[in-house]
Design a protein that fits this description.
The protein is an alpha+beta fold and 280 residues long. The protein folds into 2 domains: 151 residues, Ribosomal Protein S5, domain 2 (2-Layer Sandwich); 118 residues, Alpha-Beta Plaits (2-Layer Sandwich), CATH 3.30.70.890. The chain is 34% helix and 30% strand. It has 9 helices and 11 strands. The protein is globular and about 55 Å long.
Length: 280
C-alpha cells in the first residue's frame, strides 16, 4: 500500500487560439502546480474498487476511468483498491480531477509493475482529459495543442497565492462554447514564455500582472459576476495580480507576503479560500 499526493494547478495565462477540426480548441497556456492536494492510496486487489469521500458518480470519476483504461488497453488481469481523498474543489478550474487521473495512471503503473515511461503515460492521460498530460511534466510547463503537447520548464522562485472559489461549478465545455461566441471581442496578444518565466523568477509583479490573461474569463464573468467581484476584492486587499484559473470559477491572487495573503483569505470568507504556494 502507498499514497500519492496529487496537486492542483493554476493557469498563469490561457490563450485560446481557435477551434480545431476535431472539435477541441487550440490553446497556449502556462500552468503551474500549487500546494493544494488530493490524496490517492493504492492497494492490491483482484478487481477495481474506488473508495472516496467525494460526491462523484463512479462513471464520471477520472480515477476509475484511468484504471479501466489501463486495464483494458494493456490487458491487465490485476485489480486495485484506490482510495481518493478530495481536498481540491470539484469543477473549480484547478485541475483536481485531471491531477487525480494522472497520478492514478502513475500509481497503477507502479502497483501493477507495468514499466510505462512518461511519454506513454501522457498518451493515456490525453485520452482521459486535456489537462491530464500537464501533470506528467509538472510543476511548471507550457501547454499547447488541446493540452497534449507539454514542455516542462524550470523556475526557482515560489509565489504566495490566495485561491478563492465561489459556491458554483462551471463546465469547461460551456466556458469554451461561450468564449467561441466572443472571439472577435477578445484582445489577442502574444505572451513571451521566456519573459514570463523571467518575471516569475525575479518576482517582478508588475510584469506578471501585465502578462497574466485568460481568454475564458470574459464570457464566464459576464454570466457569473461574482468572479469579477472576487478579483476586485483580492486586488483591493493587496494582491499584486489576480486572474480566474482555467474555466473557473476559482480566482487566484498573487501576494508579496504571507501575512497579507492570510488576511485576504480570511476576509474572503464565507467563500472557500486557501493560502498556497506555487511548486518548484
Amino acid at each position: 500500500m502507498f499514497t500519492l499526493k496529487t496537486p492542483a494547478k493554476i493557469n498563469w495565462f490561457l490563450s485560446v487560439l481557435g477551434k480545431r477540426e476535431d472539435g477541441y480548441h487550440e490553446i497556449l497556456s502556462l500552468m503551474q502546480s500549487i500546494s493544494l492536494y488530493d490524496h490517492l492510496t493504492f492497494e492490491h486487489s483482484d478487481r477495481i474498487e474506488i473508495k472516496t469521500d467525494a460526491d462523484i458518480p463512479l462513471e464520471e470519476n477520472l480515477v476509475y476511468k484511468a484504471a479501466v483504461l489501463l486495464k483494458e488497453k494493456l490487458s491487465v488481469s490485476k485489480g486495485a483498491v484506490i482510495t481518493l481523498r478530495k481536498d481540491i474543489p470539484v469543477s473549480a478550474g484547478l485541475g483536481g480531477g485531471s491531477s487525480d487521473a494522472a497520478y492514478a495512471l502513475s500509481g497503477l503503473n507502479r502497483l501493477w509493475e507495468l514499466g510505462l515511461k512518461d511519454e506513454e503515460l501522457i498518451k493515456f492521460g490525453g485520452m482521459l482529459g486535456s489537462d491530464v498530460p500537464f501533470f506528467f511534466k509538472a510543476p511548471i510547463a507550457v501547454v499547447r495543442g488541446r493540452g497534449e503537447i507539454v514542455a516542462g520548464l524550470e523556475v526557482v522562485s515560489r509565489h504566495i497565492i490566495v485561491i478563492v472559489k465561489p459556491a458554483l461549478g462551471i463546465s469547461s465545455k460551456w466556458a469554451y462554447s461561450e468564449m467561441s461566441k466572443l472571439l472577435p471581442e477578445l484582445t489577442k496578444r502574444d505572451n513571451n514564455i521566456k519573459l514570463f518565466c523571467h518575471a516569475l523568477e525575479r518576482q517582478d509583479f508588475k510584469s506578471i500582472a501585465l502578462m497574466m490573461k485568460n481568454d475564458l474569463e470574459l464570457p464566464v464573468i459576464r454570466e457569473f459576476q461574482v468572479i469579477g467581484e472576487i478579483k476586485d476584492r483580492l486586488l483591493a486587499m493587496g494582491a499584486e495580480a489576480s486572474l480566474m484559473s482555467g474555466s473557473g470559477p476559482t480566482v487566484f491572487g498573487v501576494f508579496n507576503s504571507r501575512e497579507k495573503a492570510e488576511d485576504a483569505a480570511e476576509a474572503m470568507r464565507p467563500f472557500w479560500s486557501r493560502v498556497v504556494e506555487t511548486l518548484i
